[in-house]
Amino acid sequence: MDNDWEKRAAAAWAAFDDYAEEDAPAFRAVIDALVAELPEGSPLGPFERACAWDSTGHSDRAVPLYREALDGGLAGVSGDKARQAKIQLASSLRNIGRAEEGVRLLTPELDAPSDELDDAVRVFLALCLSSLGRDREGLSLVLGALAPHLPRYRRSTAEYARLLVEPAAE
């Protein structure tokens, strides 16, 4: 999509926090108007609509739209948005009681090329794991994501994260 459209979409999302909860339909209408400008069949359309439904508390409505965007070639349009879609889809799946699907979706992302969304992958995978009663695995992921950001104790935090899921060497 052109740069002007991207700027207007970014501005709409930047204004999201200004909407009151009861204004959710108005926010979704703004996103729908932007989506209407996209070429027919653009995977950006269902992605943006999924984000709008998800952000306004309707994970159930977002799930099929995220899938449509991913199946429609979102990765070919924007690798960043495709990864965002996977993270957000996993979160939505967890919200509607399908956390196992979220785990299956995000686990391969742990081995994907590194980018600024690595920590988000770990956080939302940890939430899915926790929903399945796998709290130690989830805590390990979160500690592992946090460790590099600490001013001190990086090495020990990373080791503690590992030990939550692996037995100690004897």
The gist of it:
69% of the residues lie in helices and 0% in strands. It is mainly α and 170 residues long. The protein has a domain at 3-97: Alpha Horseshoe (Serine Threonine Protein Phosphatase 5, Tetratricopeptide repeat).
Topology of this protein?
Layout: H1 3-14, H2 24-36, H3 44-55, H4 59-71, H5 74-77, H6 79-95, H7 99-106, H8 118-131, H9 135-146, H10 154-165
Tally the helices: 10
SSE pattern, N- to C-terminal:
HHHHHHHHHH
Class of the domain at 3-97 in CATH? Mainly Alpha
CATH topology of the domain at 3-97: Serine Threonine Protein Phosphatase 5, Tetratricopeptide repeat
The end-to-end span amounts to: 56 Å
Helix content: 55-70%
**Ranges with pLDDT <50 over ≥5 residues?**
none
User: What characterizes the major β-sheet?
Assistant: none
Integer average pLDDT: 95
Specify the CATH architecture of the domain at 3-97.
Answer: Alpha Horseshoe
Q: Which overall shape is indicated by the principal axes computed on the Cα atoms?
A: elongated
Radius of gyration: 18 Å
What structural class do helix, strand and pairing data support? mainly alpha
Query: What's the total number of strands?
Result: 0
Bin the strand percentage. under 5%
